[in-house]
Specification:
alpha/beta, 9 helices, 11 strands, 266 residues, TIM Barrel, nine-stranded mixed β-sheet, 31% helix, two-stranded antiparallel sheet, binds iron/sulfur cluster
Length: 266
């Protein structure tokens, strides 16, 4: 039976597309971004890690926990159905995120089909790193793509994410040709993605697409620091403070002056 591996369901999400949404986090991602906020989503299989219960700074209990839960299509649809009233009232729907949802294409396609049958709005939040063949399978079933663009220079992209951006840019171009609704998500990472050279190349990229003109700026935050420790991963941004929205206003104004619609935070 077809199953998908999910590591979290976030209800009442308001930053992952229009309205109130259920965000479904798929386990597994082909990238390893230095700043990943969901490091528990990178490894494709179930992981067993310790979970500490604390009172203040004192550990009062410690137990092992499995990260990654297997769902059949019916089981996930049941979870989605619980929130349909909220979707209807708010113009919301379901967002498939991760990790990288297109790493589980059969399961994603099957769930998207069921959502389409139920007339539920769907968004796919993607790194864009997938084959064109997989992208084609889900494009017609998806209402909105939240498409991450991080670094335009390929060598910088490889250094920060572990993969080339060539296929990502090809896929974005293809989505544009299909006239799909796409919001570019741009993580603003101090010292990495926020250089003027990268911003200028981001503007040049959007110039190539008449129908892709909305950029969501995602400010760096370090809320994942505890997760890195739990999963035994190195946190490159240990000492980096989170950014606030005001710090992004100059960049927002710069991009808006380039005739782009710019939102902050999703
Ligand atoms: S693409 Fe997203 S989920 Fe994957 S490593 Fe990068 S930030 Fe994390």
């Amino acid at each position: 039976m077809l199953k998908g591996l999910i590591f979290d369901l976030k209800r009442f999400a308001v930053h992952d597309g229009p309205g109130i949404r259920l965000t479904v986090f798929f386990k597994g991602c082909p990238l390893k971004c230095l700043w990943c906020h969901n490091p528990e989503g990178i490894q494709a299989g179930v992981q067993v890690v310790s979970k500490e219960n604390r009172i203040g700074s004192r550990v009062v209990a410690c137990r092992m926990e499995e990260v990654g839960l297997s769902y059949t299509v019916d089981q996930l649809i049941k979870e989605i159905e619980k929130d349909v009233l909220f979707f209807d009232d708010s113009g919301g729907g379901v967002t498939f995120s991760g990790g990288e949802p297109m790493m589980q294409p059969d399961f994603l396609e099957a769930v998207l089909k069921r959502c389409r049958e139920m007339e539920i709005h769907t968004a796919v939040d993607t790194s864009g790193f997938t084959t064109l063949e997989t992208l084609k399978r889900i494009t017609g079933l998806t209402d909105l793509f939240l498409f991450d663009i991080k670094l335009i220079d390929n060598e910088d992209h490889k250094f920060c994410t572990g993969v080339s951006n060539k296929q990502i840019l090809t896929n974005l171009k293809w989505l544009s040709k299909q006239n799909k609704q796409v919001i570019i998500r741009f993580p603003v990472i101090p010292g990495f993605t926020d250089s003027q050279a990268n911003i200028n190349r981001l503007k040049q990229l959007t110039d190539r697409f008449e129908n892709i003109n909305h950029i969501a700026l995602l400010p760096f935050h370090n809320i994942a620091a505890g997760k890195y420790e739990r999963f035994g991963m190195k946190n490159t941004f240990d000492d980096e403070p989170s950014m606030n929205q005001e710090q992004l206003l100059p960049l927002k104004a710069d991009l808006e002056a380039h005739n782009l619609k710019v939102t902050i935070g999703g």
